[in-house]
Design a protein that fits this description.
Layout (H helix, E strand, L loop, with lengths): L1 H21 L8 E15 L8 E4 L2 E12 L4 E11 L3 E4 L7 E4 L3 E12 L5 E14 L15 E13 L4 E11 L13 E11 L1
Antiparallel strand pairs: 1-3, 1-11, 2-5, 3-4, 4-7, 5-6, 7-8, 8-9, 9-10, 10-11
Length: 206
Amino acid sequence: MKKVSLLVISVIISSIAFSQTCNFSGEDKKVHFGFNLGINYSNIQAKSGLPENATITNGEGLSFGSLVDISISQNMLVSTKVEIASSKGHINFQKRGAENSTYDIFPVSLGLMTHLAYRLGNSKNAPYIFSGPSFRKYAQKAPSSTSTFINNSNIAIDFGIGLENKNKFFKLAPEIRYSYGLLNINENPALKDLHFNSISLVLNFE
């Protein structure tokens, strides 16, 4: 986990320094580097139902990462992102005469995503819509205990809306993103299936 965090931080710092050195913030440039910060809330779903003693608890989390935007036309661009995210979502098991246990869902994860975005106008404050695939992987060290389980990797479809604000020295683009999980990420034999969805508020800086 420490190695992954250090890698992402290094990418962010390198992206910022490289963009400032090469002055990629100009309107005539097609490639823009930046970073983002965000908060998220999990929406875990068990499509086949849960055991009687199990309940879902969704929770908030944080994310940070780096991004590269590539313009393919005046109003359309491809945005690739690498993010580290946390989540407090889990499954709680209530056991009679025994201590309750939990199954954590992506407590820390590494996300890779590619979004196709379309600007709705060309003003300095232009809204945009976006959609695209994302990949999420459990990013903590595998537990040594045989009674503790990790999560399978997830592939999701992301979509959302944002507002691009162009300033003199940088661009700020807050966006709301919903991620709809397509795969069963469960590895706990006490459960049948789990799908991980989330909604995020992200601030992108370029």
